[in-house]
């Protein structure tokens, strides 16, 4: 190994955290002797376990229990809360900004490294739909999940207190665009929560609400198979959820959802979960990318043609060596999901340690075990090792699998305790929308009128 190996990990999500965790274990002696240093640059000081975001939005799990503090888990790594703005891999330097950048005069910092791990994750894939940027709500972060929960409950409060039928109808119409995991699970959990909450409103019933799922293709949840996808559509429709297949959102300007099938309806809630795309940082690295903007990687998780650069997860196009190559063409790529990301991170951490020690590298190979999805409390679908499950067994498997994947015993114990307590007591239906404007009360007391948020206007004016 070199006199001192500086390893820079860009991103603190699945791959970033698990790779750094593996490195601090594999290089424990080298780190202690000062021969290796691992720096993690992340925009947040925590890793979000995204599969539990729908349950956090529904109130089944506390928001702080679906995030893992990086400083606690990566106690032998250097954590920098900031964002990498540019990379010069030829010179082995990264330019980044931190929370103190503006206070220090706005000059970005330059960090030198010997080994680079690119794990910035992905961002929401949006389309130029009129009104989407103004009124759409994402579902990739814990802040968005909790904001959506508060928003849904606030809409129910608006509908309960208004005498205007148009305002009531718009408040009780909830549109979700995208039939993948994020959209279906978020819709299933929130509809289940809202239906339960109506029992505490004297003038609202589940039938008053309109839930719409818009999917551009002819099926939803392709990961669980065609049969389970059809079952999911049937189950959602049985719950009075309007599933629109082969339909696109053409516009949501003026808070009116207009679909490609000619439908239009006012709504104050439009959740956009129509896929993700690689982080924009990758486009400016000068490293080889595939047609979708992901880093071209070898089965050893090294960036192809770029020594000392590594990647995995959403940012990487990794060949699936367990799948047969079609003729003379390239092998299929690993799906960008959590199942691969966690396992790739372990191999990636090992391979960096192997590389520093001059040892042979491991090849990433994982046979896809299957997929599970939750549709609300005690409801789910699963296709695991060729077996198809639905209803309570699938829901139970969903919880058991993701509990096993959740990092740290601390978080596992807290989530399990919340599930046990949730089975003994009723759901919480409290909206804490004021968390989004915590200084509003004080500003009013101090004689200053807080700036008005157009989203708070029941009629949706801007």
Question: What is the CATH H-level superfamily of the largest domain?
Answer: FAD/NAD(P)-binding domain
Measured between the Cα atoms of the first and last residue, the distance is 60 Å
Q: What is the β-strand count? A: 24
Instruction: Report the portion of residues in β strands.
Output: 15-25%
Q: Detail the poorly predicted runs.
A: none
CATH class of the largest domain: Alpha Beta
| Domains, number | 2
Strand order of the largest sheet: 7-6-5-2-1-8-20
Integer average pLDDT? 90
Overall spatial form: globular
CATH architecture of the largest domain: 3-Layer(bba) Sandwich
Our count of helices gives 13
Please identify the structural class as seen in this structure. alpha/beta
Largest sheet: 7 strands, mixed
The CATH topology name of the largest domain reads: FAD/NAD(P)-binding domain
Residue share in helix: 25-40%
Alpha-carbon Rg, integer? 23 Å
3D structure, described in words:
The protein has 13 helices and 24 strands. The mean pLDDT is 90. The protein starts with a strand and ends in a 17-residue tail after the last helix. The strands form seven sheets. It has a seven-stranded mixed sheet with strand order 7-6-5-2-1-8-20. Strands 10-17-11-12-13 form a five-stranded parallel sheet. The protein has 462 residues and is of the alpha/beta class. The radius of gyration is 23 Å and the shape is globular.
What is the gist of this entry?
By secondary structure, this protein is α/β, with parallel strands linked by helices.
Key phrases:
alpha/beta; 23% strand; FAD/NAD(P)-binding domain; 32% helix; 462 residues; 7-stranded mixed sheet; 5-stranded parallel sheet
């Amino acid at each position: 190994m070199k006199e001192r190996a500086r390893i820079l990990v860009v991103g603190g999500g699945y791959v970033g955290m698990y790779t750094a965790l593996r490195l601090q274990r594999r290089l424990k002696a080298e780190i202690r002797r000062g021969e290796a240093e691992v720096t993690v640059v992340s925009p947040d000081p925590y890793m979000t376990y995204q599969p539990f975001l729908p349950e956090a939005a529904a109130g089944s799990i506390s928001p702080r229990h679906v995030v893992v503090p990086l400083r606690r888990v990566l106690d032998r790594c250097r954590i920098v809360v900031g964002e990498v703005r540019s990379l010069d891999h030829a010179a082995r330097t990264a330019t980044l900004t931190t929370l103190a950048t503006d206070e220090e005069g706005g000059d970005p910092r330059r960090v030198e490294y010997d080994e680079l791990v690119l794990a910035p994750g992905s961002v929401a894939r949006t389309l130029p739909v009129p009104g989407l940027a103004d009124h759409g709500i994402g579902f990739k972060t814990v802040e968005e999940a909790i904001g959506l929960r508060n928003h849904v409950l606030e809409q129910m409060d608006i509908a309960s207190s208004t005498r205007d039928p148009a305002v009531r109808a718009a408040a009780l119409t909830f549109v979700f665009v995208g039939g993948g995991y994020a959209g279906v699970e978020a819709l299933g959990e929130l509809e289940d929560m809202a239906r339960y909450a109506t029992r505490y409103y004297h003038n609202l019933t589940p039938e008053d609400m309109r839930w719409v799922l818009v999917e551009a293709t002819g099926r939803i949840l392709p990961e669980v198979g065609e049969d389970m996808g059809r079952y999911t559509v049937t189950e959602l429709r049985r719950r009075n959820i309007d599933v629109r297949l082969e339909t696109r959102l053409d516009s949501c300007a003026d808070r009116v959802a207009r679909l490609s099938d000619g439908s239009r309806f006012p709504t104050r809630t439009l959740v956009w979960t129509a896929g993700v795309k690689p982080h924009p940082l990758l486009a400016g690295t000068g490293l080889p990318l595939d047609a979708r903007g992901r880093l071209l990687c070898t089965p050893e998780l090294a960036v192809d043609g770029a020594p000392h650069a590594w990647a995995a997860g959403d940012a990487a196009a990794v060949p699936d060596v367990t799948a047969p190559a079609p003729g003379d063409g390239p092998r299929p790529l690993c799906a960008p999901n959590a199942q691969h990301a966690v396992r790739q991170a372990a191999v990636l951490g090992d391979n960096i340690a192997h590389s520093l020690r001059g040892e042979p590298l491991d090849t990433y190979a994982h046979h896809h075990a299957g997929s599970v999805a939750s549709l609300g409390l005690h409801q789910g679908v699963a296709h695991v090792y060729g077996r198809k499950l639905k209803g309570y067994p699938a829901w139970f498997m969903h919880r058991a699998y993701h509990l096993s994947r959740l990092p740290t015993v601390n978080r596992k114990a807290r989530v399990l305790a919340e599930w046990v307590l949730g089975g003994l007591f009723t759901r919480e239906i409290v909206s804490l929308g004021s968390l989004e404007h915590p200084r509003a009360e004080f500003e009013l007391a101090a004689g200053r009128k807080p700036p008005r948020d157009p989203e708070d206007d029941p009629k949706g004016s801007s």
